[in-house]
């Protein structure tokens, strides 16, 4: 059934409600404003997955430890840029604080996934330590420093 238009006002056929054209119906289960923040998460999440793979390759098979701080800051920055691009593209509601929180969370999640994958890689190579013991003995204070660098990079990139 076609919706009748009268002088720029749309009348909903099922309820008879009149509203300006282009607005979301009141009966819509998911309003447009709640869907817009998903692009920020999707773009940032894609960057976080790629960054987590990069961090794993550097820490696991290549056994780089000192350069991880620079790589983690760069990954965080790229995650922040991607989250900002997704939010800008969708004109997301929530503002800069929500975008920064999303970017920081995704950057730290990328670090955690890379640490778990590196621990798994150590078991492929014959390791027997648990994840906490492995990270404490092999990387030590580099682990929390890496999380801080990733969070700082994401916060700066998402501005």
Describe the structure in your own words.
With 159 residues, the chain is mostly helical. It has two domains: 1-30, no CATH class; 33-157, no CATH class. It is built from six helices and three strands. It has helices spanning 32-35, 38-59, 68-90, 95-124, 131-138, 142-157, and strands at 5-6, 9-11, 18-19. Strands 1-2-3 form a three-stranded antiparallel beta sheet, with no helix packed on it. It is elongated. The model has no long low-confidence stretch (mean pLDDT 83).
Brief synopsis:
The protein has 159 residues and is mainly alpha-helical. It is 65% helix and 4% strand.
Order of helices and strands: EEEHHHHHH
3D shape: elongated
Rounded to the nearest angstrom, the radius of gyration is: 22 Å
Number of domains: 2
- What fraction of residues sit in β-strands? under 5%
Instruction: Characterize the biggest β-sheet.
Output: 3 strands, antiparallel
**Spatial order of the strands forming the largest sheet:** 1-2-3
Features:
159 residues, mainly alpha, 2 domains, three-stranded antiparallel β-sheet, 6 helices, 3 strands
